[in-house]
Design brief:
It comes from Tamlana crocina. InterPro entries: Murein_DD/LD_carboxypeptidase, NLP_P60_dom, Papain-like_cys_pep_sf. By secondary structure, the chain is an alpha+beta fold. The chain folds into 2 domains: 41 residues, no CATH class; 124 residues, endopeptidase domain like (from Nostoc punctiforme) (endopeptidase fold (from Nostoc punctiforme)). Helix content is 29%, strand content 25%. It has 6 helices and 10 strands; from the N terminus they run αββααββααβββββαβ. Helix 3 packs across helix 4. The N and C termini lie far apart (67 Å).
């Protein structure tokens, strides 16, 4: 009898230890919070009644740029590695190359070659998902750095890139170093 009871307790215990994502739903005060998705979809935070959650979900659509940016952001904090394209280390063009490749957009591997793709865009017309190209350091005569625009807030452009000193980070174009090194913006999408 004690073996049967123990077996039943184990079965009940293991069946309730799932690692699936769950959302609560009720007709009043429903909340849907998903913080990590394996499909690389942008994180969604909705609160309110179930009807408003469903209405919001039906109106939300994600662009290819949103998915590429979300993919790139997962590498924030990864250390810099020249020629790197993985979580073990990444360089600026590797970050952009892998982010676009994930969504079947194949770009050249080097930033100077990426700058030959797409159409040139004036800074006042850039959108999230566009690329920023820079001439940095001692090599100011050629493009040697690339960043992916993730947001435009208060007339400041935020972009994700990988630097040799800090790894993958989000910077602002209004920072004097990046503004002085800026060369051009291009739209690939």
């Amino acid at each position: 009898m004690s073996r049967i009871t123990l077996l039943m307790l184990l079965i009940v215990g293991f069946s309730s230890c799932k690692s699936s994502k769950r959302t609560t739903s009720s007709s009043v005060g429903s909340t849907k919070i998903i913080t990590k998705k394996s499909t690389n979809e942008p994180t969604v935070f909705n609160t309110g009644t179930q009807n408003s959650v469903e209405a919001t979900a039906s109106k939300v659509s994600y662009s290819t740029a949103d998915y590429i940016i979300t993919f790139a952001k997962q590498f924030e904090g990864v250390r810099y590695k020249w020629g790197g394209t993985t979580e073990a280390g990444m360089d600026c063009s590797g970050l952009v190359y892998e982010s676009f490749k994930t969504y079947d957009i194949i770009l050249p591997r080097a930033s100077k070659d990426m700058a030959k793709r797409g159409e040139k865009v004036a800074l006042k017309d850039v959108l999230h998902g566009d690329l920023l190209f820079f001439k940095t350091g001692n090599r100011r005569n050629s493009i040697n750095h690339v960043g992916l625009i993730v947001a435009i807030r208060n007339n400041d452009i935020e972009f994700i890139h990988s630097t040799s000193s800090k790894g993958v980070i989000i910077s602002r174009l209004n920072e004097s170093y990046w503004l002085n090194a800026f060369h051009e913006a291009r739209r690939v999408l």
